[in-house]
Each structure stands twice: as C-alpha cells, then as structure tokens.
Write a structure and sequence with these properties.
Elements lengths: L1 H30 L7 E6 L7 H6 L1 H26 L3 E4 L11 H14 L15 E4 L3 H4 L7 H11 L4 E7 L2 E7 L11 H20 L5 E5 L16 E4 L2 E5 L4 H11 L3 E4 L6 E7 L2 E8 L4 E5 H5 L3 H6 L1 H11 E5 L11 E5 L10 E9 L10 E6 L2 E6 L2 E9 L3 H25 L1
Parallel strand pairs: 1-2, 2-3, 5-6, 6-9, 9-14
Antiparallel strand pairs: 1-15, 4-5, 7-8, 10-13, 10-14, 11-12, 15-18, 16-17, 17-18
Helix pairs in contact: 1-3, 1-12, 3-4
Amino acid sequence: MQSRIRRLVIAYLVVLTAANLYVYNYATISALFHPASTIRLNLYGDPQIEGDAKIRREPTVGRYDLLFNDYYLHHIYKSTIAAFRPHYVVTMGDIFSCQWISRDEYYRRIHRFKWISHQIDSKNGSLSGNHIYYHIAGNHDIGYGEETEPYHINRYTNNFGPLSREWLARIDGGIHRFAILNAMNLDKTRNIQYRRQAWQFVQQLVVERQERPDIPLILFSHIPLHKPADACVASPSIRYQNDFVEYQDYLSPATSAYLLHCLAPTFVLSGHDHNGCQAAHSVKASASQAVPLGAAGKALHSSSDLCSLALEELDEFQTEIEEFARQTIAPATGFGDAGTNAWDTLEVTVRSAMGEFDGAAGIFDIHTSRHYHPSSPQRHARAFGHNVLASANGYEYRYREVLLGNHLAIRVLLIIDVVSCFVVPAILLLVL
C-alpha cells in the first residue's frame, strides 16, 4: 500500500512539474522551431488593464485579480519578447479598461503597464532591448468619436506618442512601409479637429502610395475594416449619438472602401474584436457602372475617383460610396488550408491578450520568399486555425498565435502548487 502511494505521489509530482515547466517556458518551446525572418513584430491585443474601480466594487477579490492579471500579462509580454526577439512590439489598443479615469489612476496604470509590457523592471529601471515599442489608441484609451475629448487625446499622446504615425523598414534589400491609423476618429467625430488630423494623415499616405506603389504597406488600426456578419465573431454594427459614433465593431463601409482602394495595404493588423479573426479582401479598380455623385456631374467609376474626394464629400456621399464598394469589393471571406489567390489585402484581427482569451500574443514575420519566381502567382494565402501564411510580390508573411492558456487553468495550477507544498511533504512523511 505504501509503495503504491509513493508511486502515485511521484507520478503526481512529475505531472505537476511538467505543467509548471511548460507554463513558465511555453514561449521558448513555441519558438524552438519558428522560422527565422528579416522583420518580426510581436502583437498584443487589448490588455484592458483594470484598476481602482474594480477594487471599489470588490475590495479583496479585486486586489487579487489585479495582482494575478498583472503577473499573467507580464509573463506573456516578457516570455514572448525574450523567446521571439522582435524588432517591434505593438499593443493593438485598449491598453486600459476605461478612458474616464482620474489623472492619478491614469499614471498608476501607465506605471503598471510599463512593467507588464517589460519596459521597466520591478525597481523602475528601464530595460534595454533591440526592439521598439509602438502603441495604438483604442476606444478605452481615448473614446469613440462621440466621446473624444482633448483631455483624453492630450494625455494619451503625451505618454504613448502620436495617434497616427508611420515608419519604413528595410527587408532584404527592399522596403516596407508601416502605418498606424487613428481609427477612433476616422468616422464621424464630435471634435472635428481630431477627425481632420486623422484624415490628413490618411491622405498623405495616399500621396506616398501613389508616388511609390511598389513599397508594400502594413497598416495598423484598432478598429477592423468592415466585413459581413458571418466573417468574424463581431458583427458590422455602428451606433450613433447626435450623428457621432457612439459604438462600432468595424469601421464604416465608406471608410473601409477608401482605405482598401486608396491605400491598397498588403496587410491590415487590427484589434478590438477580442476573439481574433482572419479575412481576405478582394478589390477591383473599376466599377461595372459609374455611380453618380449628386447633381454636380461627378461620379465614382474607379479607385482614383474615390481617392480624389475630400472629407466633406466622403460624408455627403456615404450611400454612393457604399454602392461603389458593393461593385468593387468582394465581401470579406475567411480562408483555410486550401488557401486563396483571390485577395488584395489580408486582415488579421489580433486575439486579446486577456486571460479569458487564453493570453494570446501574435507573431508577425516578413522575409523575402525563397520560392518566388516572376512567373509564379503573385499572391497566395493559407490559414491554419488562427495562423496565416501568405506570399505577395516576392515576400512571405507569417502570422502565428502563441497562447499561454486560459487564466482559470493557470489560477488552478497556482493553487495546486501552493497546496502541494504542504500536502505532499506530509504524505511522504507518513509513508516513508
């Protein structure tokens, strides 16, 4: 009997040790056979860090949850950054759980986030690395268009940088352009100043794309592009208050059509939809028949017609632009192992890093295609679950999800670890 108990205890300890080793080294294990690339980005979706409001609601449980969640998210950032060694670390928006927090609480959460995202250590010392951090503003950071306030905008930009920005990266002799959009103010916004700034950036990108269409564009947007109801978990829902956006799952059809036609991004990387999603967008340059624009004699027949419209015209002719989009943009579809050549832009919505969604980190790689030949298909993409492998114009793009595990399973493991520290020695003393 005692020998059987000893064997059971040993087996239990072996399984428990293996589980702990995996949890603490999951990113290193995931990176073991991950192919090398020229440019790598680590993407983290919607951490939505909570704070004082949760403690007021649930004083004891709230403090425990905040402590656990901070360490959980910190482990995700730190482990995947160390294992995959990215060039860029991008948080896809909704850094905080609410934009309506006090100044003091805001700065407490910034300090927590810097530790969570592995920018500072536990002693507030800066951590050096070869990667650059970028942050995208989400609806919980600055609000939707109806609630955008200068105060929210200013304190965000003072601490996280511009709402819209771009940079170039050299990839094996070529160049890629990366651009972050202020998606929160692209559709109808109460403070027109911020909407004009958002669109000025987009239209400057359009000019750059027209001058150098050969440079692939990777676009970042907290809010995903418009898609049909069955394309992802989220639905194409927009609510307005006083004619300004109060809530939206996707960008409006007109805004999405403009971005697809006029920027022609190779990839769009978005957040907001916590479940994650992959979709292919196919765009034709011309409509089957011209769409008249009011009584001014103007019409939409080609991409260039749409790209020449001013912001006021984009608002005035929403219905006409949506009709043009129906003629020129195929409904976004998913794709599987069989793959698809029918795409102009691929979109990956990054799954949330929150524990409820398994603590996801997205790894996005770009490198020159080893199999590219001018006579081969210019574009091809396959999806394996939430992982994507795509080729376009001589480059390969790879997106991969790395999951830590559901927070409930991790909590249970921690409890078992604590209990085992007391129970296992007691059992061994009894049977030895």
